[in-house]
Fold this sequence. Notes:
- By secondary structure, the chain is α/β, with parallel strands linked by helices.
- It has 11 helices and 19 strands.
- It folds into 2 domains: 9-233, HUPs (Rossmann fold), CATH 3.40.50; 256-377, Rossmann fold (3-Layer(aba) Sandwich), CATH 3.40.50.
- Strand 17 (315-319), helix 10 (325-331) and strand 18 (336-341) form a beta-alpha-beta unit.
Amino acid sequence: MATFNNTDLAAFKDVWVFCEQRQGKLMPTDFELISEGRKLADELGVQVCGLLLGDGVDGLARELGGYGADKVYVCNSPLLKDYTTDGYAKVVCDAVESRKPEVVLFGASTLGRDLGPRCAARLHTGLCADCTHLDVDMPIYKDFLRENSTLPSERIEGVKTAKVLGQDHDVSRDLKMTRPAFGGHLMASIICPRFRPAMATVRPGVMKKAPFDQKKADACQIVALDVALTREEIHTEVLETVKAAKKLVDLIGADYIVSVGRGIGKDVEKGLKLAEDLAAELGGVVGGSRAVVDAGWLSADHQVGQTGKTVHPKIYVALGISGAIQHKAGMQDSECIIAVNKTPTAPIFEIADYGICGDLFKVTPLLTDAIRAAKAAK
Length: 378
């Protein structure tokens, strides 16, 4: 650490993505973050590099190139076969200290939420947790503010500097990390102006995965890094990995989602049954708004929104959801949005491709029957 100067900003270069693998399989968030890292690297004029840790994981590395990685650093060791905070944090920090990336991204998985802060603390830099948007380029960032904030245009146009230790600091090359704050009621943009690397954990499902390109995969450079790690430096031992039998809904990977809101309140059991029937006909899953989860009608793994999961299904059906900004932020990029609400002025209709103003308890069975009939006619 004595030779690592994290305030010499000019010495840091490239965007790194920590690529999580479990039992020899890459996680979907890896491809999302490599794709997003490609965008940031292009804005900075640098390379995007994956960092892959494990035991015998060389064969996984080239796939990351297909989603935009110029280079993948691979750290192999039997001590890295199972995730441990001590082992992984040391290897990641050693790699950062020797190669000096200016940005390091982690998925906000249980592993990433554990590893990211530990590395940031060891490297004496900042980390923004649970990000939903990332930018470097100022014009692109200002466009984001115009579309997603209530700031007046003159304030947005004036975004050029930030006060750092009483001095104006040019933020044009800083990573602008946006995350929900105060329970999703505000969106905060955070920078790390004094130290490098800038580090962030990114919520799974919010970044769009680029199409796989075999030519890019073939061109990706694979670099093996030496691993200086001993058993004595790891203070825990993984004896067994047991997968929980609890079944959780996979909202992020679903192509069809039927979500329910406060509108099912007059008959919760019936409302949920109607949503489940419709989802079954579509071959999808049931989601819900924060109000539904807070009321205990659905478990937290069903929640869609800024404080839940961000989804991009082919079809998103919103039943009895008014469309608060926090919910819309989590589903507005769906390919097709169908909204059912008895209030004609409900905000959900502003982003819906198809809106039905009516009682969900009457409309939903009609939708289910229509889909069933259309499938039978094929």
